[in-house]
């Protein structure tokens, strides 16, 4: 029985689709009661970022030592840096009955599926490739060459969409947040219906 445990929610999708933006909006909503799992990364801290709030910033050596100690649910190399989800926080928080939210790229999400098949997988998709291109250009963090590379990669990443439980189109950020909240609510309802039915049938089988 898992009802007393929290739900693991995984938001993923191609680079530039708006995962970070949507995640921030989800957590800006005071009604959100999921716990955000702060990732570890070897990338340099950007201006305004705070260690332990945006990420736990680690050196390459520290990160590799943590990999050796099996301290990640998943980790991936992304644009030359490591990113990973710390296992202890996620397990402890789920055990306490809280929902945990991960915002990670697609390779990492694949690894989570193997370890937490019962997790809820939400794929954030762009309204169109033209939107994706515009967002990558608009973000202003990548050269034209890197943007072209990311668009090529996005095709491969989009093909993974059918492995997810739900697809949310990131047209408006507010609408995407609302959809994520309703998906989580529906998943809780489904989970409690399944568990109640199972409990009833098992009790009957024992008598
Ligand atoms: N696999 C994995 N990906 C992560 C994790 N944390 C963040 N990411 C992803 O890493 C990518 C780069 O993140 P970041 O460096 O913050 O840059 P930006 O989101 O592209 O501005 C994004 O696609 C994040 O979703 C993690 O713990 N594991
Ligand atoms: N729904 C949206 N409409 C318009 N622009 C968006 C939307 N969502 C995100 N963006 C913009 O797209 C760019 C990429 O978003 P970001 O959150 O960095 O993507 P990701 O984390 O998936 O790489 C940012 O400049 C962001 O402001």
TrEMBL record:
Pfam families: Guanylate_kin. Its EC number is 2.7.4.8. GO terms for cellular component: cytosol. ATP binds at residues 13-20. Its main location: cytoplasm. The keyword ATP-binding applies. Keywords: ATP-binding, Cytoplasm, Kinase, Nucleotide-binding, Transferase. The keyword ATP-binding applies. Residues 6-185 form the Guanylate kinase-like domain. It catalyses: GMP + ATP = GDP + ADP. Belongs to the guanylate kinase family. Essential for recycling GMP and indirectly, cGMP. This is Guanylate kinase. It comes from Phocicoccus schoeneichii. The gene is gmk.
């Amino acid at each position: 029985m898992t009802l007393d445990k929290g739900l693991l929610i995984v938001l993923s999708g191609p680079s530039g689709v708006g995962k970070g933006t949507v995640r921030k909006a989800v957590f800006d909503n005071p009604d959100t009661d999921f716990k955000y799992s702060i990732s570890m990364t070897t990338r340099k801290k950007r201006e305004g970022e705070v260690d332990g709030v945006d990420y736990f910033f680690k050196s390459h050596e520290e990160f590799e030592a943590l990999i050796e100690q099996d301290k990640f649910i998943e980790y991936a190399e992304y644009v030359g840096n490591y990113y990973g989800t710390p296992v202890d926080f996620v397990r402890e928080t789920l055990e306490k009955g809280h929902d945990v939210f991960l915002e990670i790229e697609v390779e990492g999400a694949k690894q989570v599926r193997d370890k937490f098949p019962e997790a809820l997988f939400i794929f954030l998709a762009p309204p169109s490739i033209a939107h994706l291109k515009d967002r990558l250009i608009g973000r202003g963090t990548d050269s034209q060459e890197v943007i072209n590379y990311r668009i090529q990669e996005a095709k491969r990443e989009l093909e993974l969409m059918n492995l997810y439980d739900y697809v949310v189109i990131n047209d408006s950020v507010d609408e995407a947040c609302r959809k994520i909240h309703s998906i989580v609510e529906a998943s809780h309802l489904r989970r409690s219906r399944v568990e109640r039915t199972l409990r009833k049938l098992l009790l009957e089988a024992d008598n």
